[in-house]
Amino acid sequence: MAEVIRMPRLSDTMEEGNIIGWLKKVGDKISSGDILAEVETDKATMELESFHNGYLLYISVQEGLVPVNDVLAVIGEKGEDYKAVLASESASEENHTAAPSPPASTSGNEAPAQEESEPTSGDDDKPRVKSSPLAKSIATQSGIDLSSITGTGDGGRIVKRDVENYTAQSSQTTSPNIPSASPQYGEIPLTQMRKTIAKRLSESKYSAPHFYLTMKIQMDKMVEARSLLNANTDIKISFNDLIIKACAAALRQHPIINSSWLGDKIRINKDINIGVAVAVDEGLMVPVLFSTDQMGLKDIHSNVGTLAEKARNKRLQPQEMQGNTFTISNLGMFGIEEFTGIINLPDAALLAVGAITEELQLTEGVVQARKVMKITLSCDHRVIDGATGAKFLSTLQQYLENPVAMLL
Known about the structure:
By secondary structure, the protein is of the alpha+beta class. The protein is built from nine helices and 20 strands. It has a six-stranded mixed sheet.
């Protein structure tokens, strides 16, 4: 019996997946455990694994966006007629999402649930064309009429490369001496990760009432302590490692900062799981250090390095980006001296860390050059009051300005 493979929900916030490429082709023998395709989710690029044995009989979308639970492929016996299975699946979906007007008839060789038909204009009498969701999105943004493009996908379906080839050919035939009738600009289709970042940060900024507390930290002793720690070891502890360690120690003393707003109650998290923001090409990812307060500096350094590398290669697993109770975002390495961050829900606070700079300070009538660093705590006012946040920063300041205390 043929098995229908659907787009799985590979993360808790995933609504659609982007097929980057298939590692198997129609006709290939498939064993349970084989990797069928690579799928870009809202958080990472993941492998689509087969749980069935047989032959790959059908692929619905070679590349592009596919909603969660939509048909991706069919696996069955060699030569098996899978069309009846697809027809049954399509009929079920059409009954569930029936439009007010009668749907266009389709032949038995197509999978209507996967091939998105659309009018080429507002006139319903004009012919309809088949295209992938990604191709449709790119064409719409570029002002291209899909009916003018010849599709090379299954059954004449228009896919991403068709739109790109059409755009390239059109630009070559345009005379450079004729000014454009409209302003020129470039547009980039949103990736799944960028969509989720936009959604989550908007939810945080407009649902959690933010306020900010900024403090200047004297870092001379921390700079000296780091030099001593790294003097006789191959492992080079970073300032970020030391800040993570200090935050974990301070959170243990101020559990309300390590809390979450749940609507009708506040949850005080017993575990201290610090999310560490990592910049990637498409935005920001926040892998989590679980039980951070139980880690030594070497463990923090090793785990942050491993997770950051996985984030940049888009290989983080969903469970590595969930369960955070507090987040640190450090832009000091980019020369940013001070900034405010948006809280990473469900956390109640986020610490924004700036660069270590040198400034002249007057101490007992003597001008001295001192190393300083500015930190800003973003607080959810539903959970944290100003005095509570200030007390946490005061404790954190003590650890950062006297690093021996946090290492005891």
